[in-house]
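re: ur msg from earlier - yeah i can do the alpha-L-arabinofuranose complex, just paste it... oh wait u already did. ok heres what im feeding in:
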Amino acid sequence: MSDIPRREFVRSALAGGAALMLPGTLYNAGLFGRRGFSAQTDSHIEVLLDEPIGTIAPEVYGHFTEHLGGVIYDGVWVGEDSKVPNIGGIRKALVDALKRIRPSVIRWPGGCFADSYDWRDGVGPRENRPTRTNFWIDDPGFKNVDGGPALYDPNEFGTSEFEHFCRLVGAQPYLAVNVRTLPAQAFREWLEYCNAPAGKTTWSDVRETAGDKDPYDVRFWGVGNESWGCGGNFTPEEYVEEFRRFTTWSMPHYGLDLSYIASGPSGADTEWSRRMFEALRERNAIDSVWGLSVHHYSSAPGVGNHAVDYDEIGWYDLLERANRMERVITSNWAAIGPIDRQHHVKLVVDEWGAWHDNAPLEDPSHLFESQQTIRDALVTSLTLDIFHRHADKVGMANVAQLINCIHSLFLSHDDKFTVTPPYHVFDMYAAHQGGQSVRTLVSAPEVSWTSRNGEARELWGLSGSASVKDRELTLTVTNSSLAEPRECEVAVRGGAIKSVRATTLISDDVHAVNDFDHPDRVTPKTVDIQTTGPSLVHDFPPASVTKLAITLG
Ligand code: AHR
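and the outut:
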């Protein structure tokens, strides 16, 4: 994937006089934007209330849970007889903390696992359910693990348990359908289990034995996962054949408007997206797609990818790779635009996060688990702000994965539990959900460094996004510099500031983590700021994430 051509982006925008017509936030590195500012600060932010981009779909604040390592077993599911406090087998501490950040949607059961999973193994009385070999069993990360639910899935956690988890936290379910190893008929029956009216079919009767007379009304269905890879090694054209088989004619809707999410590219592989959409157009099938799934993980090269003991280069390299999300979104959008001219299909970034190469923390079966630092919190804030700036394009996003895995908001083992720094960003940013994203111009000195492979690189000094809901303006800002604070004048165009509350996430040691003994090591602080009028001056500390909750007069 190539780098984002930031300087060119700014120059061409200015040259064309089209700066204010571009989607999202424009970063001009001091080239313009000082007009109308009163303070002599090194940075400026203009929030343009009269320039809406789109509503930030609450589904952008989605999560992802896969039967992988410690995500489900020891993470979400502890079992009804566990000494770990639980609600019907689901870890209570997780339910309580997750509810607070308003999770809009949760994706399950994978990931690569989904294309090996038979949902019928996970329904009916638990004591009758079969144990199956997990998709990930041959991963080298399991070399010190001998047995257990991460290798041999007991199917204690199935569709109804997942639905109960979603209900407990107030999220919509998003199910990933097995396209690689099951026929379309199995999908049809899964739909029936979830959505058929009570007492009408054998599968809805089985659902009732789980205590659920009423249908689950599952709306979001992913048709396969990474179908170019673990989901079947399909070509885009072959995948479209499968997609058609799985979604046309015979699928019962039970009065619901089903939203099918098609398996899309890895990152900015726009060739997959373009060919897939060409094939959909040939079959007159674009309208049957609700969302195009896109995955983007960020890893810093070399030693910089250690989750905790990274160096300065590792800090910047990772943030720069997280920022490539912008390119992933704009390039895929541009690739499908000439085919889906009305932009009927939205992008669904249903896997994203920083993927470090560390060993699990306490339990060796927690495959891909790593600690999270303030650096991962900044990956979170940069990414969510990108989604807001492209609110017109992104219909859903799911951070990967919820607990005990890649970019996790939670870590647990037995009865131990903590939230991580990225959790706090989700908490701070929850106010953006459902808000109207408005164009925001940022001007700040750039951050420069030499990357691990010796290239001169630059990052935007400050970045962020803004949204408005009921006269409440939420402005979120990341200062990516490890060393430089930014003094910034924030001007609200088209409105007046009545009151401001600032919440800042910062860490006195950028390598610090929240662990089971110190769960509050990295937590945000909130203060009220006394200011009124059209603008305010705020100091953004280095390596920080800030939310300014501004009540408009
Ligand atoms: O999240 C881990 C894996 O990464 C998922 O199973 C797969 O979809 C992706 O490659």
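cool cool. The CA atoms of residues 300 and 317 lie 5 Å apart. ping me if u need the other ligands too
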